[in-house]
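User: Show me a protein chain along with its predicted structure.
Assistant: Here is one chain, sequence first, then structure tokens.
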Amino acid sequence: ANEDFWLQISTDGGVTFNTVEEWNLGDEFENETRYFDAVTIPGPFTANTQVRFRCDASSNTDYVYIDDVSISGCVNGVGSRLNNQVPAALGTTNIIRAVGLYPNPTRGQLTLSFDMQQSAQIQLQITDISGKLISKEAMQIEAGVQRRELNADHLRAGVYFMHITSKDQIITKRFVVIQ
């Protein structure tokens, strides 16, 4: 069965789309397995840029979930302002990679994992869906794979955001607390 997915981009308002990445059943993914992937979309971008996911689904009632999508961008080589946050400096590199936050949804205990490309000062913040700051913690992190156990027992049921901030990078992950 043809069960393929494409990430496509249009810079002309959706008149035409070009494929940036594709995933094919059998060699890039298997059904019933959760995958994590990162894709870099090369510019230049226009004011009419659109991004879409496309698939040719089969008739075997597969369920497809695309979640935890994080988009960061550049404008003329300088990091853009996304979510009203400070842009990255010209020529900087992403030092925080492969961020995971699980289980999601959670009933109280969360695991945050990420890979630091170099030692750096970071800040972890949790905000609610309205943007209200729930908690904030600054720390010096060494290079390598990091894993932090976080207690979310004190949070009411709802949608929250984990923000991981370094000098030049902001990563935001959404998570849900259930009762």
